[in-house]
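Lab notes, practical 5.
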Amino acid sequence: MPKSIFFLLCLLFSFSSFGQEEVAWTYSYDSDSETITITAEIEEGWHLYSQYIDENLGPVATAIQFEENKDQFKLVGKTVEPTPITEYDKNFEGELSFFKDSVKFTQKLKLKTSGEVRGTITYMICTEEMCLPPVDIDFNLMINKNEK
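Output from the prediction step:
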């Protein structure tokens, strides 16, 4: 079955059968390291794609976007992820990188003032048999500059 047809069938099936409750997201800030940690707890049997995959293969890479607020903070570098599992995926006919169980993404920042950090996570999850459509979720995290 060509990968584009498989992908479309997965999307159609998922719209009718499932919600997007297979990943639980949490957010925290460490004032000592000035780092935001975004944690994804992934239900058994599902996997979440890395930020760095060949999207020409079909699935959508995880993307974490922070709303700019230059008066409050400056991002330092890119959002970091641990080393993912990389395997050949017969459904998408290529090597894909993903996470199972849980993953922690980290983003360093230089905080100027206390306030709310906002952003959006775009992600897609799959099992060996099917995928759910990509979704966007908004997040916000209150950070107190004086908190140690």
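Observations recorded by the TA: The chain has one helix and eleven strands. Residues 5-19 have pLDDT under 50 and may be disordered.
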